[in-house]
Amino acid sequence: MILSWDKPKPIISKEEWMNISADSAPPGVYVSNMSDEDRRKWKAKLVGHKSGHPQVEIRKDSTVIIVSLHGGYRYKYYGPDKVGTGDTNGINLHIASAGPMQLTFEEFDEMKLAVEEAKEALRKTEVHPHDS
Question: Can you give the pTM of this predicted structure?
Fold first, then answer.
């Protein structure tokens, strides 16, 4: 298994982090609050079930990968006039980074395995009509 589903432990308090964070800033600005060891892992969490857009969010260093099986994914976007959420109309994979992605071949293979593992996790959580 490539993905780590455990929530990373913060290295400073939330109050200290909020004082230096750019959490509400435009994309590309990110202040991590986890250990270097956690930052190097393929961290994953299942999100979006309440909104009807189940997806897996994967993070490693400053890279974010969103994986969705059906109907696209939801994301937070920033524009000159507004901040909001949008749908991606059928796109299944979103990859963003605060800078250039620099991967070894092994890390690239791990990224592909992480996406496959995320897809499998989403398949396991799908509700089918005959399951209700």
Answer: 0.74
